[in-house]
Structure formats: C-alpha cells, structure tokens
C-alpha cells in the first residue's frame, strides 16, 4: 500500500482558546494530505479542474484521539482506501512527532463534470490516474 506523508508545523492561528488545534483544521490538513498524495504519484488535481472536472467530498469522518498544540509538527499520512468506477475513499492518519496518533479519518469523493455536476468515471478522464488508484488502493477494489 502506498502512503504519502506531509509534515505541517502547527501555527498559533490553528489553535482554540484551550490551546489545542481547532477541530476544523484537521479537515484542511486532510485536503493537504490528499493533494500531496496525488502529487507524489505523479498527477495534478488542478489539471482536472483545468479540463472541466471537480472532485467534491461526499462524506468525511474524523476520529480525534490525542490533542495537538501550537509549535508541534503534525505528519499527515494519506492513502487510497478504495477506488471504484465513481467513488474514491482516502484514508488518513495525523501523527504527533513521537508517532502517536492524533486523529484518523476518511473522505469519500466522486468526480463530476464542472458544468453539470454529473458523476463521471476517472477512467474516462485519465485512464493512467485511474489505473494507479486501482494499483495502490488498500482494499484492492
């Protein structure tokens, strides 16, 4: 299974009054991780948008395990959990510097035509990208 990693230095603006990372920032970090994974396997999400496609989130889930704080470095680990004709599920782990898990999550996406928002198979837009997702998907779907 291919796992992409991206480190983020936690900024003060990402924390709340309790001094811990505000929960919504994990969603942003997951987006950063997903973008890094796409880049690491040789593709470019912006390129999909340029040719008229978007990949909206259909579902997102985060489980918070251990608080993170300002000044720490978070490592975002991202992989393709499953990939089917119309849906891709990404998996995430956000780790503390010592390797302990701060949060885990998944996000479910589809590919749509920008003008109609109708689902469209990645295999018809970029067969190489689709094949790579099938190759690296954790579940092998």
TrEMBL record:
The keyword Zinc does not apply. Pfam families: 4HBT_2. Belongs to the 4-hydroxybenzoyl-CoA thioesterase family. CDD domains: 4HBT. PANTHER family: 4-HYDROXYBENZOYL-COA THIOESTERASE FAMILY MEMBER, NOVEL THIOESTERASE SUPERFAMILY DOMAIN AND SAPOSIN A-TYPE DOMAIN CONTAINING PROTEIN (0610012H03RIK). Keywords: Hydrolase. The keyword Hydrolase applies. This is Acyl-CoA thioesterase. GO terms for molecular function: fatty acyl-CoA hydrolase activity.
